[in-house]
Amino acid sequence: MIYIAGIFDNNGGQLIKDKVKVLGDNTKVKIMAPDGFTGYPDFVKMPEADGAYLTFAGLSTDLLLANAPDGAGAKFVSDYKAEYGTDPVGSYPLYGVSAVQVIMAAIAASDGTREGVRNAVFSGSGITIPADASVLGKSITIDPATGDVDAIDITVEIVKGGAETTLQAWVLK
């Protein structure tokens, strides 16, 4: 297996094409790439990408929605699709919204100053977004000592037929 680090925008497509040309397709020599290759329609449509493995921190949108089909994430995706005519693309749209939820909670818990927002996250009990309000469909707590989140997941996808498909997900915590 060959692991390509980096992002698709930094000549990733040509790297994949060169690998297939020299070493064979992804049935002969497997290839794995990080989140910098997920969510790129130009990448997944390449014939040379078929069979490539992709990894990213978090759960894919389909898994997040399956975990909480009536939750805040499902509402966000439904509203997004109604507005833009398509589902959000990529691995991180719901995680971006989750980050905004944390920021908004920190602002609400603060005195309105920059220091107050920081202190809301990094002192006391930190910030928690309850599962029923979380766009991820599960509780998110920010550890005030480290800034780490308690929602730790990893997804492995495979490119097949011009689409990213979830192969395996690990809920680590």
Task: Describe the protein.
- The protein has 2 domains: 2-58 and 153-171, 3-Layer(aba) Sandwich (Rossmann fold), CATH 3.40.50; 62-142, no CATH class.
- The chain has 6 helices and 7 strands.
- It has helices spanning 12-23, 41-44, 61-67, 72-84, 93-109, 114-122; strands at residues 2-3, 31-33, 53-57, 127-129, 140-142, 153-160, 163-171.
- By secondary structure, it is of the alpha/beta class.
- Strand 2 (31-33), helix 2 (41-44) and strand 3 form a beta-alpha-beta unit.
- The model has no long low-confidence stretch (mean pLDDT 92).
- The protein has a 5-stranded mixed sheet with strand order 1-2-3-6-7, with no helix packed on it. Strands 4-5 form a two-stranded antiparallel ribbon.
- The longest helix has 17 residues, at 93-109.
- InterPro entries: Peripla_BP_I.
SSE layout:
Elements lengths: L1 E2 L8 H12 L7 E3 L7 H4 L8 E5 L3 H7 L4 H13 L8 H17 L4 H9 L4 E3 L10 E3 L10 E8 L2 E9 L2
Parallel strand pairs: 1-2, 2-3
Antiparallel strand pairs: 3-6, 4-5, 6-7
Helix pairs in contact: 5-6
Total helical elements: 6
Question: What form results from the Cα inertia axes?
Answer: elongated
Query: Which structural category do the helix and sheet elements fall into?
Result: alpha/beta
Give the uncertain stretches in residue-range form. none
- The first-to-last residue Cα distance is 28 Å
Radius of gyration: 19 Å
User: What's the helical proportion of residues?
Assistant: 25-40%
Q: Give the amount of beta strand, in percent.
A: 15-25%
Number of domains: 2
User: Could you give the count of β-strands?
Assistant: 7
Mean pLDDT across the residues is 92
SSE succession: EHEHEHHHHEEEE
Please state how the strands of the largest beta sheet are arranged side by side: 1-2-3-6-7
Major beta sheet summary: 5 strands, mixed
